[in-house]
Amino acid sequence: MRWYASAIYVFLYLPIALIVIYSFNAGRYAMDWQGFSVEWYFKAFANPFAMKALRTSLVVALWTAVLATIIGTLAALGLERVRGWLRQAFDVLIYVAIMVPGVVIGIATLIAFVTVFEVVNPVIFAVFGDAVPRLSMGLPTVIGAHVLFNLAVVILIVRSRLAGLDRSLIEASEDLYATPLGTFRQVVLPLLAPAILASFLLAFTFSFEDFIIAFFVAGPDSTLPIYIFSSIRRGITPEVNAIGTVVLVVSLTLLIAAQFLLRERGPAKRRGDTA
Amino acid sequence: MRNGQNGATVPTVAFRNVTKRFGEVVAANGLELEIRSGEFLSFLGPSGCGKTTALRMIAGFEQPSEGDVLIDGTRVNELPAYRRPVNMVFQSYALFPHLNVARNVAYGLLQRSPRPPRTEIDRRVAAMLDLVQLRGFENRRIWEMSGGQQQRVALARALINEPKVLLLDEPLAALDRKLRRDMQIELQNLQRRVGITFILVTHDQEEALSMSDRVCIMRDGGIVQQGTPADLYDRPVNRYVADFVGKSNFFAGTVLTARGGGAVIELDGGGTVTAGRTGEGLSLLPGDAVSVAVRPEQIVLARREDALPAGGAATISARVQNRIFLGEHIEYLLRSETLGEFLTLAPRRSELTERPFEAGEAVFAAFSTEAALVLGSE
Ligand SMILES: Nc1ncnc2c1ncn2[C@@H]1O[C@H](COP(=O)(O)OP(=O)(O)OP(=O)(O)O)[C@@H](O)[C@H]1O
Ligand SMILES: [Mg+2]
Question: Disulfide engineering: B298 pairs with which of A257, B292, B354, B371, CB 3.0-4.6 Å?
């Protein structure tokens, strides 16, 4: 590897490495190394605010992953049958959703939510009075925004797997007397399962580590990235580093798992004949 | 044939004037065919002639644009594939990669309602794996099997359902020559044992001729000729069939006189041939342009003209261009000044020659009147 290539990697990953290293610092100031210790991890897990943010993030990520995976998979299956200009329109929209920067999605969904609330809330008030709370920003809006941008990811992954699916397997199943529903259950779904699971993990990860979109549409409950952001403003402590490291490890693990699931399962190592 | 009221047997599968179009492409063109129960029939033809399309219309993956497909005398045009009593062995085998060998084989039985009891399924899977000699492979994954083994799994998966008809789309194409030969024999034995109607698609003429009771020669979506392998070899209706089934020499010429089944033909290269046979459905008039077809093994060679059998249709003096050693036989490519190149096939030890002819050697070739078959010129 050329030296400048190495330099780029150092530049990219050094900050992350520093965060991980200094999360094990015994001292109380972030960049002042006082020896190895894991006490900040215990402190972080004992911090009620951090734990509440973590729980919020997990709830948001889980709901996002579940909803995005279900809706995205159904959409991918449906789009498989769409042809012509309609199909092209959907394809373009899906890529747009992936390429649009998070800030734009954040602002756009915020405006959308506010606009809808402005219309709906007076109606709710007129019908129910104060008995029913007004709609406002909160976990559901974060989940909604996250589902929106993760949908595109799920659709792309599931659809590429679907496109690679051998048509003759479906015909073989029908030839062997399976009804269309039976074929879907016994052949299509099992073969799509790795892709569906992988997109679930990716959606979970993207939601779990998202700061920008959540920053715009979150209500009073902050997610973990928002909590980290606000505590950094009070100075970087080893505790923040420890939380950051936990987020990093969780995300990387899920990403690697997803990557593993999406690997093409080749004509793997054949055992010698044993019979 | 009317629904077998007077004891006449109903064909297991029948095409009635079946046409299938894909946009501009006509993949099947007015197919007429009846396949009897227990028969081993092949569709033989070059790539793109519509063999697979014909098979897929029986399986139910394609609907005819015109005409009817009948199974046991019942029209099945609109019957979906999963309700037809036929099973298919796919060219790529299409085994389910997420199921092991036993679950692949059991797949068809598991779709029955009511589902047969567990013990019954296990018993039949075991019996099937016995039949294809794959006992002990039950828990193998598909990708852990060799090509030949996968092929037998695919066979077992289809046969376990005891279909009325087994459809095979070039099931041996992916196998190497030796294994293919073995599987051809196995398939043939299997068909005799289970007594199920087999319909095989292939573009390998040797495969079709060696395995089938009857062969349909196809071209451009149509059936050119159907008959037993011997019929097709001995009595091809045109040049296309003669060329496709075995090797053949064609000598262009013009009819001088025609009478009975035979004719006297003036060859374009000079000289005349007395041909003893005429292709079916061909009526000859003097002046018609025709081809005289002669099989290579029906041409005898000798070093001296007087060593040739007397009373031949023609005697040709030629020079050996090339010699191909085929084990028992030797194939000679000869060239005559008047007739151009032609092939002969001689047993290695013929009574006429103790030692084989050498390239460049001058020889005399002759064939009998009965060996000469007059066909249309196209
Ligand atoms: N689904 C389809 N859509 C459009 N054209 C098709 C389709 N299936 C087949 N064809 C066309 O119909 C013709 C016959 O195809 P078919 O697959 O039956 O040929 P084949 O005899 O099986 O050839 P091969 O030996 O190469 O398998 C071809 O010209 C092919 O391109
Ligand atoms: Mg084909």
Answer: B371
- Lowest mean pLDDT across B37-41, B98-102, B373-377: B373-377
Q: What are phi and psi of A88, to 5 degrees?
A: -65, -40
All CATH 1.10.3720.10 domain ranges of chain A, comma separated, are: 47-264
pLDDT at residue B150, as a whole number: 93
The C-alpha atoms of residue B360 and residue B335 are separated, in whole angstroms, by 10
- Residue by residue, pLDDT tens for chain A (275 residues) are 578 888 888 888 888 888 888 888 888 776 778 888 888 888 888 889 889 999 999 999 999 999 999 999 999 999 988 888 998 999 899 988 888 888 998 999 999 999 999 998 888 888 888 777 878 888 899 999 999 889 999 999 999 999 889 999 999 999 999 999 999 999 999 999 999 999 999 999 999 989 999 999 888 888 999 998 888 888 777 888 888 898 899 889 999 998 888 886 544 433 333 33
Q: Which residues contact A213 (CB under 8 A, 6 or more apart)?
A: A102, A105, A106, A109, A142, A145, A146, A149
What secondary structure letter does DSSP report for A131?
G
The answer to whether residue A168 neighbours chain B at the CB level (below 8 Å) is yes
Domain of residue B144, CATH code: 3.40.50.300
Q: In CATH, what number does A47-264 get? A: 1.10.3720.10
Q: Are B208 and B341 in a shared domain?
A: no
The number of distinct structural domains making up chain B is 2
Chain A residues whose beta carbon lies within 8 Å of the beta carbon of residue B107: 173, 176, 178, 186
**Which residues on chain A are in Cβ contact (under 8 Å) with B90?**
168, 171-172
Query: Does B19 score more than 90 pLDDT?
Result: yes
d(CA B102, CA B116): 15
Residues spanned by the domain of B289: 247-376
Give the span between the Cα atoms of A175 and B99, in whole angstroms: 17
Nearest CB to A175; choose among B59, B135, B137:
B59
Closest approach atom of ligand 1 to CA B49: 21
Residues B196 and B118 grouped into a single domain = yes
Q: Which of A185, A186, A195 is nearest to A164 (CA)?
A: A195
The verdict on B146 and B215 lying in the same domain is yes
Kindly report the backbone phi and psi dihedral angles of residue A39, in degrees, each rounded to the nearest multiple of 5, phi listed first.
-60, -30
Name the residue of chain B whose CA is nearest to A167's CA. B94
CATH code for the domain of B364: 2.40.50.100
Query: Which ligand 1 atom sits nearest the alpha carbon of residue B50?
Result: 18
Cα(B86) to ligand 1 centroid in Å equals: 21
Nearest CA to ligand 1 atom 29: B48
Which one-letter DSSP state was computed for residue B103? Answer: H
The 10s digit of each residue's pLDDT in A123-142 is 888 888 877 787 888 889 99
Q: How confident is the model at residue B352 (pLDDT cuts 50, 70, 90)?
A: low
Residue B357 has pLDDT above 90, yes or no: no
Residues B286 and B169 in one domain: no
Pocket of ligand 1 (CB under 6 A): B 22, 25, 27, 45, 47-53, 203
Asked if A275 lies within 8 A of B135 by C-beta distance, the reply is yes
**Cβ contact A174–B82 (<8 Å):** yes
| Partner residue opposite B90 with nearest CB, options A168, A182, A274 | A168
As a whole number of Å, the CA-based R_g of chain A is 23
Residues of chain B contacting residue A165, judged by C-beta atoms under 8 Å apart = none
